[in-house]
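Batch manifest, entry 17 of 40.
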Amino acid sequence: MFKILNIFVVLFTLLISSAYADSHTTLIDNETVVLLHGIALTKSNMDSVEKALEDEGYKILNITYPSQKKGLNDIAIFLETDYLTKDFWDTTRKVHFVTHSMGGLVVRTYLEQYKNQIDINKLGRVVMMGPPNKGSEVADLIHKLPPYKWYYGPAGQELTTKQQALTQINPYYELGIIAGKKEWPYFVAAFVTPGQSDGRVTVENTKLNGMKDHIVLSATHTFMMKKSDTHKQIVYFLKNGEFNHEK
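Output type: structure tokens
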């Protein structure tokens, strides 16, 4: 009797495991998340976000783009030419985007520039972490300095509040924005940025007209993509179209 019961338990466990594996694989096959890092960084800076999303079953396209060599429009062209091609869109059922810092401006520019070529039914949700949507007061302070111009290139000149005031683009997609309010260890920047900030971008300047949701976390600009709380909010928005504001 016990032997028959053990066999039943084993078969039932195998059946459940197989069903879970099949559903997990289907999710990976059907939904892709494109990751875009910030200026002067590489795709390795988004590794922890990549792992968190892979654990949820998403397929990931983590891209390194020439953030210091091209302006925003040219970076958008680079993405369309080298990664987000017609074939990519044709073979993917749903495409989401998750970005950090200037990556938010990059995806904003790309989605606007190619909106007539993108199948709106395939475009999923967008999550931006610490995006300077209204520019950065830190960039205002130092963008004319030769070392800044040399290191950050043409895109660095587009991060000022004046420049972003001229290039506001309202999203036609579901957009969630995560802002940080922890200024440590940016002591100098804390005096430059008015109000709450992540040490680089103020909470107010992360916002964009037409966004679906906005949340403020205890995070600093450079490391917000490494925090598990951030990962949970990204996943929640991709699945629900809103952040989890419950404490």
